[in-house]
Write a structure and sequence with these properties.
The complex is a heterodimer of chains A (about 190) and B (about 100). Chain A is mainly α. Chain A has helices at about 5-10, 10-25, 30-35, 45-55, 65-75, 80-95, 95-105, 115-130, 135-140, 145-170, 175-190. Chain A contains eleven helices and no strands. Classes of the chains: A mainly alpha (about 190), B mainly alpha (about 100).
Chain lengths: ~190, ~100
């Protein structure tokens, strides 16, 4: 990572936690963990509360749907790290690798429900153009997406528009698929706390 | 959704108004992507608009301007959350315009 403090500036207790994570998972500690554990009262703590609520709080979107939204936002932002990480969680949550791969390679032709596709399209536009308008929202409501579902999707988008920027700006190391799979297991079991 | 609104407000209040090593003015400028010091404007603009283009040199330039790593950490965090917040607020306003104000 580009800032040495994010690699090795943690408190003694946090370093002990990292040693435990390495021992149990037999994988390196993911850079996102190092980021959220660095001076956690400034960023990591308050951000994890937002992200946990968005990704695991009450919503009619499934966990898989929300992880897929996160992966698509990441891909649109050109964030390789977050696309791998959340694509892996979505695949595990859905127990369907092909569905996630299909959406990430071509949203228009993937075999998914239309309200989810319309929502993913809106998130992609918001992420790419950094704005959407009332007509976009009317189209989404007409496609059968409820107002609460739109708000829930926007909360996912907020979290991953933040995290993706940080992953790229701080230069997260992209590890092998096994490290992401270990991370995905953890995120499915425990969420973002 | 009230929980998420409260959690978001707490996050923004913490990074902008709480204790930090960068000044409140530096953090606010990074969040708003406005009135940013010249030595930081490239970094902040990239984080907001195309973070995948941030390079080692951009971070090195911020360091060379006399900022500590903790200050750079805070400024980058504020920049990312500021841009994500503007997008979120724009989209919620569009939703209100389409569906009417929420009771």
């Amino acid at each position: 990572m580009r800032l040495g403090i994010l690699d090795s500036g943690h408190s003694f207790g946090t370093k002990a936690l990292f040693a435990l994570i390495r021992a149990v998972s037999r994988q390196p500690v993911l850079d996102v963990i190092k980021l959220v554990k660095y001076r956690a009262d400034f960023y990591g703590g308050p951000m994890q509360r937002v992200t946990h609520e968005a990704m695991r709080g009450p919503s009619t979107w499934s966990v898989g749907d929300r992880e897929l939204m996160a992966a698509l936002v990441a891909k649109t932002n050109g964030c390789e790290w977050c696309t791998h990480a959340h694509g892996a969680v979505a695949k595990a949550a859905y127990r369907d690798e092909a569905k996630v791969s299909a959406v990430l390679s071509d949203l228009d032709t993937a075999a998914i429900e239309e309200p989810l596709r319309a929502t993913l399209r809106m998130l992609r536009k918001l992420t790419r153009e950094q704005a959407v308008d009332a007509d976009d929202m009317r189209a989404l409501l007409a496609a059968g997406v409820s107002r609460d579902q739109i708000e829930d999707a926007l909360a996912v988008c907020f979290s991953f528009n933040t995290m993706g920027r940080l992953a790229d700006a701080f230069g997260f190391f992209v590890p092998g698929p096994q490290a992401f799979d270990a991370g995905a297991k953890y995120l499915l079991a425990r969420g973002y706390r | 959704m009230s929980d998420i609104r409260n959690a978001r407000s707490a996050l923004v209040a913490r990074i902008l108004e709480g204790d930090g090593t960068a000044s409140h003015a530096q953090r606010r400028a990074a969040f708003d992507n406005a009135a940013v010091a010249e030595s930081l404007s490239t970094l902040v603009q990239k984080v907001a608009k195309h973070a995948y283009e941030v390079t080692d040199e951009d971070i090195a330039a911020a360091r060379a301007s006399g900022l500590s790593e903790d200050q750079i950490f805070e400024i980058v965090v504020c920049s990312a959350i500021g841009q994500a917040t503007r997008q979120y607020d724009t989209a919620l306003a569009a939703l209100e315009a389409a569906a009417g104000a929420k009771e």
